[in-house]
């Protein structure tokens, strides 16, 4: 585990509580901007919109979702990490949060932000990714796809949310363990990648259940496998990679709310309390359940500990994958 990126994660609640107050004005004193570092249609966007609507009602100020995609999520993550820590700029981001600084180091690039530049507020969703293919593709199973990929190395195109983003890492984890090579096509987010999967411009995509469910029901895509440790209620007939003989292929795409480090402790506390109310709201839970991504709420202390452990696992996976073409 990289100490610069992750040792601060568990201490973030303490650091936030020691932050100096920004004057005496009541918070929020202006509109709140919730940055989603991906285009509409992906897991972070799915998490952000019901949460933003609830926060707006509870806080009495507009909460504007700002989709700022690019670089696998790094552009939006960096923008919030560098923003004024007054509680009026928030971030709804994914598990790639911890991977992207490590990818910068791996690729010998300047690191744009570290995890401890952001303070966790609450986890919202936590789903295993699913491996989906175009419904017109010939593969009816993972074994079919692996056999074809071995016969045509580097040919079958798959999409991702950007280099070393959540969807890229999960697919490279699969490819590494299956000893195959596919053609990585990066997009600015899962939404555009899903559009091209449906049209047939790419042939495979790993994404969250809530992102894929409607298209599976419409018959435009087919799901072959589940990256989780066990089957999920929204896709009960989809086997896990563990069941298929790939015990090391396990990946979860979580979404959580963050703010820039240094926010006043009173603001962090109010955000935590508001998120607790939001995630208990029946309408918010109904939206997530209907999308096939049930709520997976964690308050700040549990979420910070979860980030530290999940990040360590993902960094090990990225280091094992190493430098990849298109990274």
Which helices and strands occur, and which strands form pairs?
Blueprint: H1 3-6, H2 12-17, E1 32-36, H3 43-59, E2 63-67, H4 74-81, E3 89-94, H5 96-106, E4 118-128, E5 130-134, H6 142-151, E6 157-160, H7 166-178, E7 183-186, H8 190-199, E8 204-207, H9 209-218, E9 221-226, E10 252-260, H10 265-280, H11 282-291, E11 295-299, H12 300-321
Parallel strand pairs: 1-2, 1-3, 6-7, 6-8
Antiparallel strand pairs: 3-10, 4-10, 4-11, 5-8, 5-9
Helix pairs in contact: 3-10, 5-12, 7-12
Describe this structure in words.
- With 327 residues, the chain is an alpha/beta fold.
- The chain has two domains: 3-126 and 252-321, Bordetella uptake gene, domain 1 (D-Maltodextrin-Binding Protein, domain 2); 130-226, D-Maltodextrin-Binding Protein, domain 2, CATH 3.40.190.
- The chain has twelve helices and eleven strands.
- It has helices at 3-6, 12-17, 43-59, 74-81, 96-106, 142-151, 166-178, 190-199, 209-218, 265-280, 282-291, 300-321, and strands at 32-36, 63-67, 89-94, 118-128, 130-134, 157-160, 183-186, 204-207, 221-226, 252-260, 295-299.
- It has a six-stranded mixed beta sheet, with helices on both faces. A five-stranded mixed beta sheet has the order 7-6-8-5-9.
- Strand 1, helix 3 (43-59) and strand 2 (63-67) form a beta-alpha-beta unit.
- Helix 7 (166-178) crosses helix 12 (300-321).
- It is globular, with a radius of gyration of 19 Å.
- Residues 1-24 have low confidence and may be disordered.
């Amino acid at each position: 585990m990289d100490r610069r990126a992750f040792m601060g994660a568990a201490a973030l609640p303490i650091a936030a509580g020691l932050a100096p107050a920004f004057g005496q004005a009541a918070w929020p004193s202006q509109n709140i901007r919730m940055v989603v570092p991906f285009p509409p249609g992906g897991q972070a966007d799915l998490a952000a919109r019901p949460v933003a609507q609830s926060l707006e009602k509870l806080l009495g100020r507009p909460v504007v979702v700002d989709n700022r995609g690019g670089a696998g999520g790094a552009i939006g993550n960096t923008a919030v990490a560098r923003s004024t820590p007054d509680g009026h700029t928030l971030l709804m981001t994914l598990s790639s949060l911890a991977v992207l600084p490590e990818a910068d180091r791996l690729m010998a690039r300047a690191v744009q932000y570290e995890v401890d530049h952001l303070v966790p507020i609450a986890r919202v969703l936590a789903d295993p990714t699913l491996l989906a293919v175009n419904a017109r593709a010939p593969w009816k199973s993972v074994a079919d796809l692996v056999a074809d990929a071995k016969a045509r190395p580097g040919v079958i195109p798959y999409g991702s949310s950007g280099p070393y983003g959540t969807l890229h890492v999960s697919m490279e984890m699969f490819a590494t363990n299956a000893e195959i090579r596919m053609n990585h096509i990066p997009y600015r987010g899962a939404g555009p990648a899903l559009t091209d999967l449906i049209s047939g411009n790419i042939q495979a995509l790993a994404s969250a259940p809530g992102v894929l469910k409607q298209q599976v029901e419409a018959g435009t895509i087919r799901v072959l496998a589940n990256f989780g440790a066990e089957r999920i209620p929204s896709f009960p007939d989809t086997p896990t990679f563990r069941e298929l003989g790939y015990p090391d292929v396990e990946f979860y795409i979580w979404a959580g709310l963050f703010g820039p480090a240094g926010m006043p402790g009173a603001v962090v506390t109010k955000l935590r309390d508001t998120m607790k109310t939001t995630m208990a709201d029946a309408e918010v839970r109904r939206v997530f359940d209907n999308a096939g991504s049930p709520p997976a709420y964690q308050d700040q202390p549990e979420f910070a500990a979860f980030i530290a452990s999940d990040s360590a696992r993902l960094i090990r996976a990225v280091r094992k994958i190493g430098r990849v073409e298109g990274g």
